[in-house]
Write a structure and sequence with these properties.
The protein has about 500 residues and is mainly α. Helix content is about 70%, strand content about 0%. Strands 1-2 form a two-stranded parallel sheet. The longest helix is centred in the middle third of the chain and has 33 residues. It is extended, with a radius of gyration of 33 Å. The two termini are about 60 Å apart. The model has no long low-confidence stretch (mean pLDDT about 85).
Amino acid sequence: MSEMESELSTRAFVRQELVAERTAPIKTTGLVGLFRTRLFNSPTNILLTIGSILLLWFTVVPAVKFLLIDAVWTGKDRTACLAENAGHTVGACWPFVQAKFSQFIYGFYPEAERWRVDLTFILAALLLVPLLIPRLPAKGLNAGLFFIGLPIVAFFLLHGGGLRGFGVSWTAGLLAGFNDSIADGGGKLANVSQTVPVLGPVLWLLGEFLVLLSTGISYVLWPLARLRDQIQASVSPVWADFAATAAIVSLLLFFLNGGVRTGWRALAASLAVFAGIGLVVSVMGLDRGGLPVVDTRLWGGLLVTLVVSVVGIVASMPVGIALALGRRSTIPLIRIFSIAFIEFWRGVPLITVLFFATYMLPLFVPAGFTIDGLARALIGIALFAGAYQAEVIRGGLQAIPRGQVEAASALGLSYWKTTGLIVMPQALRHVIPGLVNSFIALFKDTSLVSIVALFDLLGQLRAAFADPSWSTPTTLFTGFAFTGLIYFAFCFGMSRYSLFVESRLNAHRRN
C-alpha cells in the first residue's frame, strides 16, 4: 500500500447516525399556493387583497342581490314591483324588461314586418360565425358575401322598396347629374362675373369654359343616355338593364383579363356573380316593388345600435387605411389633405359631427338630391372613426422596419403590392389592440345618435321610462342594468376575440 492510500484510509469516515430531516419546501401550487405566493406574500399584497375583497363585498354582493335574489320575475304592471305587494324589499323589476323587450330590440318597427329584422340578424350571424373560425374554408367568398352582399340585402330587407333600374341607368343618371352640376356652376360663375368688376372677365371665361365642357361631356354621354332611354321604354326595364349591365361588365372583365387566352375564368366568375344577384332580385321581388318601405325614423333599439356600429366599424377601416397611407405619402398635396382631414375630424367631438352630418350635409349636395337621416349619421360616424383609425394604423406602419420595403423593392414588387402583401398585413397585426379598442369605443358611442332623433338601445330605454304603467322606484336601475349587460356582452366578446386573433397571428413570437 502506498503512502497516499494509507493516508486516505486513515481519514475515511462512515456516518453512524441518520442526517436530521430538513423542513419541507413551501407549497406553491393549488389554492394554498395561490394564497401564499400571489395574495399574501408581502405586506403590500396583503393590503391589496383585503381591499379587493372589501370592494367585491360592497359592489358584487349588492348587485347580485338586486339583480337575482330580491328581483321580481313575473307581473303585468307596476304593482308587481312595489314592496307592499311583493312582501319584501324589491330589487330588479324584470317584468318591465319583458314588457318592453320588443321595443328595446326593434324600436317602433312595425310589428307585422319584424320578421325582416330577425332574418337580417340570422343572415348576419350565419355569415359572421364562419368568418371568425380560422379553420373553415372559403374565407374570400365568405368575406365578399358579408361585406358586400349582406349590406345590400339588409338594406332592401330593413328599408324595403324595389329597383327602378340597374347599372346602366344608375351610371347614366350619376354622370348626367355630375354634368348638370358642371353646367350649373358655369352658369352661376357667368352671372356673378357681372357684379365683380375686377375679376369679372376671368369669372366669365371660367364660367363659359365650364358650360362648354358640360356640352362636350353631354355629347360623350349621349350613347349611354340613349341606351338608358331604350331600356326604360322596354317591357321589363329592371331585367333589361340587368342583362345589359351583366353583358357590359362581363365582356370588359373578359377582355381586360386576357381575352380568349386567359379571360374565361374572369368571365365565368362575373356571370356567376350576376346570376346570384339575379336570384336575389327575383326572390325578394325587387323588380316588382320589393317589400313595403319602413322609414328609418321607425327604426330603433338594438337594431339601430348594431347598424350604426357595424357600418361605422366596417366603413372606417378603408378610410383609416387610405388616410394613414396618405399621411405618409411623398406627394405634398395628398399628405397635406390627409393631415388636414385627420386633424379636423379628431379636433371636434362626435356630437358636433352628428349635428353637422344631420343638418348641414344636405346643404352640400345637389338640388333635388336627398339623404336619409340615418345615412347622414352613418356618413359622419364613418368619417369620424376613420380619422382615429388612421392614427392607429399609422403607428403600425411606423413599426415596420425599412428593410421590409427595401427587400420588396429588390424583388421587383410595386408600391401597391409591397403595401398590400408585405407592409399592411404586418402593420395591422401590430395594432390589433388599438383597433379593437377603437371598435369598442365606437360601439358604445352609438348612444350619441339619440341627440339627432335616432332612438338606439339607450334611446328606446329612456322612451320606455315615460310609460306610467311601469313607474316604480327600481324601474330605472333595472333598465340600465339590462342595457349595460347587453353592451358588456358585445364589448367583452370583441375583446376576447381580439386576444385570440392576436395570439394566433403572433405565434412566431412565443418563447
